[in-house]
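Re-running Purine permease to confirm reproducibility after the cluster update. Everything else is unchanged from the original entry.
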Amino acid sequence: MEEKVHTGLTYGVEDKPDLGTTIVLGFQNVITAFGGLVAVPLIIAGIAGFGVEDTAYMVSAALLASGIVSIIQSKGFGPKWFRVGAGLPTIMGTDFAFVAPAAAVIGAGGITAYFGGTMLGALLEVGLSYFVKPLLKFFPPVVTGSVISLMGMTLMSVAMGWAGGGFGSEDFGNPMNIGIAVLVFLIIALINHYGPSRIAPAAVLIGAAIGYVVCIPLGMVDFGQVVAAEWFALPQFFKFGVPDFKLEYAIPFVSGYLVTVIETVGVMQTLGAVTETKLTDERIAAGVRADGFGSFIAPFIGSGPAATFSQNAGLIPLTRNASRKVAIMGGIIMIVMSLFPKFATLISIMPQPVLGGAGILMFGTVAAAGVQSLSRVEFNNRNMIIVASALGVGLGVSFVPDTVAQLPGILSGLFSSGISAGTIVALVLNIILKEKV
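Result of re-run:
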C-alpha cells in the first residue's frame, strides 16, 4: 500500500480544491503543456502533406485524445490485473520520439500506415508494462535521483528556446523576447513566494496571462488565426481512413515505444517524489500501461501515440498542488477545447517568450527535486560515477543529438532522447559497478 508524507503541498493527491480553484489550476496545466500538445500533430500533418482543414482537425484530435488519456492516467481504471493509469496528476500528449519513424512510415504507406503502425506498437508497450515490476529493482535512489535531475535539465533547452522567441523565428534572441520572458519569470516567482495560499498555486497561469496581455500592444499576438478558426467541430472515427495494420509499419516505432517506457518510469518516479507519494511497483506499471492504452485508442479519432508529459511535473512543487482532481479537470478542458477550435487557437498563439519565462522556473524546479533526492544518497566513488555518467551522457545527447544519430538500428532510437540515454547509462552502471565491501 502507498504511504504519503504530507508536508509542503497545499493540495495533496487526494485533496479536492473547490470548483473555481480546480478549473483555474487545470487550465494552468493545459497552458503549460499546450506547446507540446500541438507541436507534434502540426509536424505529422506537414509530413502527410495535409491542407489547413485536415491540419486543424489533427490538432483538435490530439487535444481530444490527450484529454481522454490524461483523465485515465490521473484517475486510474480497471481491475488489478489490467489497471490502467497510475492515479497521479498527469497530463498526456503526443511525443516527439515518434516523429522520425513517422516520417519514414508515412513516406512508405501514407497516414493510414502511420496510424496502423503506432497501434500495433502500442500493444508492445502494454505488454512491456507487465515487466516493469522486475525492472524497478534496478532503480535505486542514485538512479532515480539522476533521472529526475536529468529530466529537468534536458528540458531547460526547450525553455530557453521559448524565451528567445522560438527556435527558427526571425527575431530569435531579440531583447524584447528576453524581456517578456524575464517579466513572466519574476511575476511567477514573486506570486509563488509571497502570494496567499489561494493565489500562489495559480502563479504560472497569472504570470502567463499578464505576459500574454503585455504582448498584445507590442504586436506579438496574431488574432487573425483565431478569426479563421472554426467555432465548433465534432471528432470523427477514422477520418483519414482505416489504419493499415502491417508489421513492417510497426517495426520503426519499436524504439519510440521503448524510449517511452523508460521515460514514463522516470516521470512516474518524479511524480512520486514531487507529490510526496511512495508508489508501488504495480502503480508505476499501471502508468506505463496507460501510455500504451492511450496510444492504441488515439488513432481511432485521428491522433498519434500518447505519452506522459514530464514538463507538467514541474508545476507540482512550484505551485504546491498535487491534486489529481486538477489534472482530471485539465483533461476535461482539453476535451472542450478540441470541440471549439477558436478557443484552442487563442491559446496556441501565445507568444513563445511567455512560455519561456514559465518553463525556466518549472523545469529548474524538477532538476532541483532531483538534486534534493540525490542529497540523500551516499556519494561514494561508485555513486559519483553513476551520477556523473548519467548526467554527462544525457546532457551531451540533448546538446548534440547528431552524435548518436548514426548508431545502428534500435540503438539510434534508444539514445535519441537525452532522458532515455542518461537513464540507460545509469541503469547499466548500477548493474555492473558493484558496491565495495
